[in-house]
Amino acid sequence: MATNGFNSPLPKSYLKQKHMLDMQNKAVVHALLKELVMGHTQTAAKFLESDLEWWFHGPPQCQYMMSVLTGKSVHTDFRFKPRRIEVVGDYVIAEGWEEENAYWVHVWTLKDHAIIQLTEYFNTWLSVRNIRPSNGEVGMKAIPCGRANPRTLHTAPYQGFY
């Protein structure tokens, strides 16, 4: 089978299955965020492993997601409304911003459709590149997936996933 001029060593059935798994992981994160926005923290907790590993990069006062997940604050203190959600293997990357000083990227790691880790970047520099082959092509490409740059958010065009 040919894909963009390359002969793919991967069968179509594998590629379909991989795409389906990616979409299921994306749906899990989307459902979690939807439940959090509605204030249903107990329902949202069902998407998380009980020993969730959490990493935070940014100003300490901006640890909003952990405050919501642990029940220390209500969902209205800060609304995580993603502007874009992308999948890179077992990682689901959500990014958003609410104002000039509130730019965030969440990298959710999933295993068997359960969230096992959250790495949160808040008002900090971050670049994510997808280096997996796309559509079963032979070879690797570095495809920009996202970029967090809080200093130019208000002056630059959308810096999301492209």
Automatic annotation (TrEMBL):
InterPro entries: NTF2-like_dom_sf (IPR032710), Wun1-like (IPR009798). This is Wound-induced protein 1-like. It comes from Tripterygium wilfordii (Thunder God vine).
